[in-house]
Amino acid sequence: MAGVASGNDFQWCFSQVKGAIDEDVAEADIISTVEFNYSGELLATGDKGGRVVIFQHEQESKNRPHLRGEYNVYSTFQSHEPEFDYLKSLEIEEKINKIRWLPQQNAAHFLLSTNDKTIKLWKISERDKRADGYNLKDEDGRLRDPFRISSLRVPVLMPMDLMVEASPRRIFANAHTYHINSISVNSDHETYLSADDLRINLWHLEITDRSFNIVDIKPANMEELTEVITAAECHPHQCNVFVYSSSKGTIRLCDMRAAALCDRHSKFFEEPEDPSSRSFFSEIISSISDVKFSHSGRYMMTRDYLSVKVWDLNMENRPVETYQVHEYLRSKLCSLYENDCIFDKFECCWNGSDSAIMTGSYNNFFRMFDRNTRRDITLEASRESSKPRATLKPRKVSTGGKRKKDEISVDSLDFNKKILHTAWHPKDNVIAVAATNNLYIFQDKIN
Amino acid sequence: MKIHNSRTQRGGIKLHKNLLVSYVLRNARQVYIKEKYAEIYRMQQYEEVMTVCNEIQELNPLDLDAEDAEEERAACCGEDFQRGKEQEPAYYRSCCMEAPSPCDQLSVNINTHCNTTTVLDLDTHVVTTVDNGYIHQDCCCDTFQCAPSAQSSAKKRKMDFSYCTSDFDELQDFTTTRKRLRREDCLYSCQEFTETSNISTLISIFGSGFSGLLSRQADLEQICSKQALAGLGAWTRAIVAF
């Protein structure tokens, strides 16, 4: 793949930032998911207010050919609204939990967006022509009196300003009792799965009134509950295979050909716990917050609170690689429990060639790991380093007593500035990093 | 606390988060109970041993000098401890594992699920670690069922008994540790005290959020949830009964 290399051979520089600069962040503006489409041309974000904003990559301008094109707003629409479950007296949040693009099959783009309970299929299409010369409507759109029409004419298509329309084509509702945490489009492009805390359902994109339940880990007695499903994903090539992770730090790979109900896994991935690192919070920090297959389909990556692990699908007893994201937080777990930060669910992502992985941390830091060279880098998404094409300076957190210059001490970290959602362009070295209500886009420097 | 607050949050109760919080509560509760039991057990044993030692000393008041008296007392305490062991019901069983030691003689039932247990002396604020094997909590996973909403049902109380049982195995080590702290030349001691990273971890845990654990029991009760305490009452009554 041309132009795709490890994350550390390139110099990351600032490209754009989207979002308000205001210090007071409205809760509804907090970005809750970020996703590139298959070509990387479109970048979608969802926020806590239920809105979806799609950015489109503009072609390089002739004036500045050394710079890659920018991402500009393409479409904005309200995907989900707050709802109320009258039966349980519960409010259903409109926060967009996940967005997943469908592979493009025609001129229109399709994506799935979900909140806690309902998944919606949206069609985003362009309209750059309009029909002019209707018989029954006049220019203003008012209906004409049919008796006054003396002659018929054929409407003519006239060019108009580009308009991007988003319309809900399917609504997949009422299939989840618990909060949906994942959706994943299958490689057959016909089905997708949705996962909540205890169940996983398989849907057909055309059928909204029913779905198949393929995993159910709800115990007969809820008091016996020991683990929940935290994430699920379809295999990128094998349409019969999917994985789901649990709060106990385990991953199960299931084959849908084996049985209709995939309660029995085909493979079980678990790393034995190190008894010496046992603490009050061992269960919390081992809970997996995200699982992602590599593009090749050979590996998968899991994110728990302190580390990222790469697993070979052929080896179940331990990961092949483990990367510490912010090990210096291990001694701070008690404070992080009290301020609820220990429950933060960080996501992780692969680059296009699977040679590098990226995940977020606190203080608006995000981390990249090169799998080949084993080098890692910490970068910061901040307004201060947001000059056009400014190269990002690597950051370092000092763990020892002596703090070097340019290092930041663990106690100075701002735990309200957390980067939970990141996305890597499927082909180029362009990354999108969501920092609370701002979306940062970074690119590598083209020499 | 967190579980209570989650009920009023938008979007309803988050099952995952509450499950994780219940794990933390369970872990904290285990530490609290260990301390409580260790305290009670220690007091009982101390009184028992002192009584016997005093009786023995009365038998030979003239032959012993101070030092010998100490050794004698320690030896007989050890013996008596052993005797006391056999007399005790099944709950008070030794838990020594990997290191061969005099304790092995006392081992009746080896609990292979113990770990580096850390004891916090609420009086002297000394934290000691005892190496035993695997973490105790794991062996309780099957019997101890954690639920986001605590119910004081009879079934749960029954499970708590078995939980208490396995807990007593570990108490043996606490008791031994405490004896050594008080009477250093006690021949009975069979455990090693090693400073591990667990201590610093536990101290930092105790030092910050769980600061109540360093102070009086009343403060501790403020930290623990009411549900935990409701269950504790049953356990305390069970201990007293034995």
From TrEMBL, chain A:
<comment type="subunit">
    <text>PP2A consists of a common heterodimeric core enzyme, composed of a 36 kDa catalytic subunit (subunit C) and a 65 kDa constant regulatory subunit (PR65 or subunit A), that associates with a variety of regulatory subunits.</text>
</comment>
<dbReference type="InterPro" id="IPR036322">
    <property type="entry name" value="WD40_repeat_dom_sf"/>
</dbReference>
<dbReference type="InterPro" id="IPR018067">
    <property type="entry name" value="PP2A_PR55_CS"/>
</dbReference>
<keyword id="KW-0677">Repeat</keyword>
<feature type="region of interest" description="Disordered">
    <location>
        <begin position="381"/>
        <end position="404"/>
    </location>
</feature>
<dbReference type="InterPro" id="IPR015943">
    <property type="entry name" value="WD40/YVTN_repeat-like_dom_sf"/>
</dbReference>
<dbReference type="GO" id="GO:0019888">
    <property type="term" value="F:protein phosphatase regulator activity"/>
</dbReference>
<dbReference type="InterPro" id="IPR001680">
    <property type="entry name" value="WD40_rpt"/>
</dbReference>
<dbReference type="GO" id="GO:0000159">
    <property type="term" value="C:protein phosphatase type 2A complex"/>
</dbReference>
<dbReference type="InterPro" id="IPR000009">
    <property type="entry name" value="PP2A_PR55"/>
</dbReference>
<keyword id="KW-0853">WD repeat</keyword>
<protein>
    <recommendedName>
        <fullName>Serine/threonine-protein phosphatase 2A 55 kDa regulatory subunit B</fullName>
    </recommendedName>
</protein>
<comment type="similarity">
    <text>Belongs to the phosphatase 2A regulatory subunit B family.</text>
</comment>
UniProtKB/TrEMBL annotation, chain B:
<dbReference type="InterPro" id="IPR008653">
    <property type="entry name" value="IER"/>
</dbReference>
<dbReference type="Pfam" id="PF05760">
    <property type="entry name" value="IER"/>
</dbReference>
<comment type="similarity">
    <text>Belongs to the IER family.</text>
</comment>
<protein>
    <recommendedName>
        <fullName>Immediate early response 5 like</fullName>
    </recommendedName>
</protein>
